[in-house]
Design brief:
Elements (H helix, E strand, L loop, with lengths): L1 E4 L9 H5 L4 E3 L5 E3 L8 H10 L5 E4 L2
Antiparallel strand pairs: 1-4, 2-3
The chain binds iron/sulfur cluster (SF4).
The site of iron/sulfur cluster has 13 residues, from α1.
Length: 63
């Protein structure tokens, strides 16, 4: 399972950070950083994060 954030869409609104804090976080410069291949156990949180993103910038690949 893979996660990708379309940075041309992302406005660093951070809803994903609240939904899946083990996968998404903001660095000290308030840039979004994320685990592109999170553990399967985190997938429900990742899906919630994708649904929560107001600009639909989180793209999921479950292959
Ligand atoms: S919720 Fe969406 S817009 Fe906000 S930081 Fe996450 S990916 Fe970016």
């Amino acid at each position: 399972m893979k996660v990708r954030v379309d940075r041309s869409r992302c406005q660093v609104l951070a809803q994903c950070v609240f939904a899946a804090p083990d996968v998404f976080e903001l660095d000290e410069d308030d840039r979004l950083v994320y685990d592109a291949e999170p553990d399967d156990a985190l997938w429900p949180d990742v899906e919630l994060a994708a649904r929560s993103c107001p600009v639909k910038a989180i793209l999921l690949d479950d292959n």
